[in-house]
Amino acid sequence: MPVPGGVAVVPLGTASQAPQATYGDQRVMVIQDSDGQWIAVVGIPLGTAPGRQSLLVQGGTAATFQVRAKEYAAQHIKLKNRRQVSPDPEDLKRIKRELDLQLAAYRTYRDGVVPSNVMLDRPVDGRLSSPFGLRRFFNGEERNPHSGLDFAVPSGTPVKAPAAGRVVLVGDYFFNGKTVFVDHGQGFISMFCHLSAIDVKPGDEVARGAVVGKVGATGRATGPHLHWNISLNAVRVDPAIFIGAARRP
Ligand code: ZN
After folding, report:
1. What integer best gives the mean pLDDT of the chain?
2. Distance from the alpha carbon of residue 224 to the mean position of ligand 1, in angstroms
């Protein structure tokens, strides 16, 4: 059964055309399985309460799925830069501006573009360090949970697109540092952050395996690593699900 921060796979029937489905106010990914059945692939927000959730499906037929509870572990991080824990008023303005840009990128939905495969390649070869969903405390203060998956790899390691896509946003942000967003289609979006270099620009089409940047430690990072987010219907979900590395709770 799906969990907060996970993915629900919801059957939508065998209509000749792909049904349109929304969850909250966001279109969701709809793909077809080998038997011709349409399937919604839905990202479930971390804050979702256990119980029944509904999709709104074009034509009025509702589809539902059940979510069960999941406990995520806590992580304590020491930062020397106090501004990264308690940003000053100027920083807060910058953070808000940058957050708006990034949230808009996550809301990208390219109709009709069906990702060739929802299984993704690893963007780098390396040990998985911090998993998705950790409840994080910076210098003892609770902040947002870990929204992605970290790989322990040296600075300069090339970061490869885990599937084909289009670059929708690049920037150098207060928390995320040098960052690249790649839209894989139908709201399926990868974000890479803390990069030392960015090798693409918005509008670039990238092939699976193309280099989009290099690993670094820019932004709020205690050392070089790759932080990789995956978003579906504008909801951050566990990237481990898509590389076959999800651990059963
Ligand atoms: Zn991270």
Report:
1. 92
2. 11
